[in-house]
Amino acid sequence: MSRRLPPLYALRAFEAAARHASFTRAAEELAITQSAVSRHIRTLEEYFACRLFERRGRSLHLTDSARALLPGLSEGFDALERASAVLRADDEVLRLKAPSTLTMRWLLARLSHFRLANPDSEVQLTSAWMDVDKVDFRHEPFDCAVLLSDGQFPDEWESVLLFEEWLIPVCAAGDSEAGPWSLARLRAAEQLHPTPDRRDWRRWLQATGLIEQVPLKSGQLFDMLELGIVAAARGYGVSIGDLLMVAEDVNAGRLGVPWPTAVFSGDSYYMVWPRGHRAQTRLQRLRDYLLAEVAALALPGVERLR
């Protein structure tokens, strides 16, 4: 029995426009013009004999009919993509997405060694600045990702905890050669903030019980952990770093620890990938390698507070 379906290209345009709430962004994703998206939507509206979008000022909103259509349609396109992936050429390349600081501080060197040890498992790394770490395996071209998260992931994902995030102050190596700082020196120090909302310093001060004794200052603001660490290493103040990601520089004397107390942030770094991915064996090989690298890293001897 033949299936009675509206044109697939029109359904695809609707799904993209509904997901983005924008004809313009849908057109960019599909590499067609905005007027083509509009025509495809009109085709569907004529087919279903109902409106799918409403404009309220400059905003685009789904109608009740469109909201009823979208979930099943999205699931259908996801199923089509999974079915197509089975026959897609397997070029032995794992496409990995990871945060910028993790890439520079830890991951890049490990992946170089992984490639040498596993010449049949090439890893193509995309480093991305992410205010909130996330990946969309349905619409982004990645096979796996490393994310900073609380571990709450979709049921259709596999995940493994690589390491916990422990926040610790860092400074120029020469500034801590005489040992830990006094409270007065910590209070007087220039605070460097690796996040615009200053959440890392706030978390550390609250967890250590120093929030009343060491005020949270404005200081220099950065939009990534790496910039704060680099500024601290060059003597511009004290930043908050991640214990694992600064471990090699601290152990080598390239970075100092003015107050040897690390605080668990509540988040951890996880490797994630879609459940049932066709490259399961190579993904598990990469997972095992990264876990072994974490276990082998010597962390600075500091107090840890949860």
TrEMBL record:
Source superkingdom: Bacteria
Keywords (A to Z) from UniProt: DNA-binding, Transcription, Transcription regulation
Coiled-coil segments: none
SUPFAM superfamilies (UniProt xref): Periplasmic binding protein-like II (SSF53850), Winged helix' DNA-binding domain (SSF46785)
Any one Gene Ontology molecular-function term assigned to this protein's record: DNA-binding transcription factor activity
A Pfam family hit: LysR_substrate
Domain (HTH lysR-type): residue spans on this chain: 6-63
GO BP term, pick one: positive regulation of biosynthetic process
Family recorded in the similarity comment: Belongs to the LysR transcriptional regulatory family.
Stated name of the protein: DNA-binding transcriptional regulator, LysR family
